[in-house]
Automatic annotation (TrEMBL), chain B:
The protein's name in its UniProt record: Uncharacterized protein
Keyword list, A-Z: Coiled coil
Annotated segments matching region Disordered: 51-75
Residue ranges that the Swiss-Prot or TrEMBL entry lists as coiled coil: 133-160
Biased composition (Low complexity): 59-75
Length: 200, 207
């Protein structure tokens, strides 16, 4: 915060984050919640929520699971908002883990009980389920059918992450990302009948 | 037919067609997901989660049936509820206008910004009839505390909340009275909605 002529001016949250070294700054007080940070979060939520849900759908989630995992990730993002340096990558990683965690928890209950059965009647945070066209559903299904690594790479590529960002996310090198993307595209082309059509 | 070597990262003859299919399909999916997103409700839900105040599940069938029996008497409540929602919208518009005025950052602005999500949460909870009286009271207290804090900060700068809001929103809103007067009025009208329903009773669903 800088003060000029009695007016307190707030620096943009991103500038403030970039100028700090969080690893060396654990004892410092948490950055204040400001107009800029609140506004940034709301804009970020509106901009990223649908894309995040789409990514989770492409990874095998149904709309309820995708909504829940996304909303839980945004909740964690809101709690830590002013200290997150790369919000989109952070959000996708947390949402992905939430989705995996939810699946593991469900699998661990061998016999679902009334408490473990998920009540799907009121769970959508974003209204009613979207109804996709046959073509849209076919593409989603084709991506879901890819092997896990290819599915991740394709999902993140569609979400406009660069190969370097995906490599960082998946903790592998960029060459592996490019190779998996190529294989994913070949598989998708096969599943969608593009290769067959060429032969005919 | 030659099957592409998967390790050959070069272009394929179906790349353009695949890109077109993926782009079209994914854009359609995204558009539908965007269309169903209800930002205010979702953000209010986030705020509830962060505060550990997940709203109770929807009322049981028995309660819903009981609500239907009281439909006639709830008509007046619905009108009062609409009036309160309009009042909240007007107050929120007032605060939003202040925050979006040309000089975006000023002492106390963060507290005013903090009051807005609580206002929206109050509106959403009242409109959905999912708030109890005590929850509504707690949200009103939170809004009041944020505005009090803003006022305190502004007084340290030689001004006060009402003067600052009046100056910054001049000509852009039709505000009625001071912020504290608006809050007092809002508090009265919200609490009136719960009269006769008991401290923990929620408003009955009507829309």
């Amino acid at each position: 915060m800088a003060q000029e002529g009695g007016i307190v001016r707030d620096e943009p949250a991103l500038q403030r984050r970039d100028s700090r070294h969080p690893a060396l700054d654990f004892t410092a007080p948490a950055p204040p919640v400001t107009v800029a940070s609140v506004t940034n979060f709301v804009e970020f939520f509106i901009a990223e929520q649908p894309g995040l849900v789409r990514y989770l759908l492409s990874q095998g989630a149904d709309q309820y699971e995708a909504d829940d995992a996304a909303q839980a990730a945004f909740e964690e993002a809101l709690k830590a908002w002013v200290s997150i340096q790369h919000p989109k990558a952070w959000l996708y990683k947390v949402a992905w883990r939430n989705f995996l965690g939810a699946n593991v928890r469900v699998r661990e209950h061998e016999t679902p009980t009334e408490e473990t059965l998920l009540d799907t009647s009121h769970r959508l945070a974003s209204g009613n389920p979207a109804e996709f066209t046959d073509d849209e559903q076919m593409i989603l299904d084709a991506i879901k059918a890819l092997p896990p690594m290819q599915r991740q790479v394709m999902g993140m590529t569609i979400a406009e992450f660069s190969p370097a960002e995906i490599a960082d996310f998946l903790e592998c090198d960029s060459a592996a990302v490019r190779q998996n993307l190529r294989r994913a595209r070949d598989n998708l082309a096969r599943q969608l009948g593009l290769t067959r059509r060429r032969v005919q | 037919m030659t099957t592409p070597n998967p390790d050959n990262l070069g272009p394929r003859d179906y790349d353009a067609e695949l890109d077109a299919i993926l782009e079209s399909g994914m854009a359609g999916i995204l558009a539908k997901l965007q269309a169903r997103l209800e930002p205010q409700a979702a953000l209010a839900d986030l705020q509830n989660r962060v505060r550990g105040q997940v709203p109770p599940p929807n009322q049981s069938d028995q309660q819903a049936s009981s609500a239907a029996d009281e439909a006639d008497t709830s008509r007046a409540t619905s009108q009062a509820l609409q009036a309160v929602c309009d009042r909240i919208d007007a107050f929120d518009f007032y605060l939003r206008t202040v925050l979006r005025s040309p000089d975006d950052f000023f002492a106390g602005a963060a507290f005013i910004a903090n009051a807005r999500p609580a206002l929206l949460q109050l509106r959403s909870g009242l409109a959905n009839r999912s708030l109890t009286k005590s929850q509504a009271q707690r949200i009103l207290d939170e809004i009041q505390q944020n505005l009090d804090q803003a006022d305190r900060v502004m007084r340290q700068q030689g001004s006060d909340l009402d003067a600052a809001l009046r100056d910054r929103a001049r000509g852009q809103t039709a505000s009625n009275g001071t912020a504290s007067a608006q809050m007092h009025s809002l508090h009265t009208h919200v609490m009136r909605l719960f009269e006769g329903s008991g401290h923990h009773a929620a408003l009955q669903p009507s829309r």
